[in-house]
Specification:
Shape: elongated
Helix content: 40-55%
Order of helices and strands: HEEEHHEEHE
Strand content: 25-35%
Number of helices: 4
CATH architecture of the domain at 49-151: 2-Layer Sandwich
Number of strands: 6
Structural class: alpha+beta
Oligomer: single chain
CATH class of the domain at 49-151: Alpha Beta
CATH topology of the domain at 49-151: Tetrahydropterin Synthase, Chain A
Length: 152
């Protein structure tokens, strides 16, 4: 009789503890609290994209008296899928815009850290040139795939 009373008391204690734990989790984590910030709204998904690869761009780095090195940049553009044929048709204009931007950036040394090329700066210059040539919203990103430097 004493054993069954102990088992009964232990069972009631376990059920009470489980009930309290369930109530605590429900009231603190599952029910929205007063004054709590609302859940964040997810941004709309990005539009479908395509990639357009350009031929390698070769730019000389001119020193005080001579050409010091050649910098070769391989670029791929991420464009809106609907605008891909237009960008492919204007690859020559894009290459010209990129070369103009790179020549200017190398001349004023804004993309160089000493003798080394600063890749994030090159990417920013190319994205700016792409938006200038094709208009805003067509080229979403410029991917710099490879940068090769050849010292002379």
């Amino acid at each position: 009789m004493v054993k069954s009373l102990i088992v009964l008391v232990l069972g009631i204690l376990l059920l009470g503890g489980a009930g309290f734990g369930g109530w605590y989790i429900y009231s603190n984590y599952l029910v929205p609290q007063e004054g709590a910030e609302p859940k964040k709204v997810e941004p709309p998904p990005k539009p479908p994209t395509a990639f357009v690869r350009l031929p390698p761009l070769v730019v000389p780095v001119i020193g005080a008296t001579r050409v010091e090195q050649f910098v070769t940049v391989v670029v791929t553009m991420e464009v809106v899928l609907e605008k891909q044929p237009m960008v492919q048709a204007n690859q020559a204009r894009m290459s010209d815009g990129f070369l103009t931007a790179l020549y200017g950036a190398v001349a004023d040394k804004s993309v160089l850290n000493g003798p080394l090329v600063n890749i994030p700066a090159v990417k920013a210059k190319l994205l700016e040139a792409a938006n200038k040539v094709m208009g805003p919203g067509v080229v979403l990103d410029v991917l710099v795939q490879a940068v090769t430097q050849r010292n002379l």
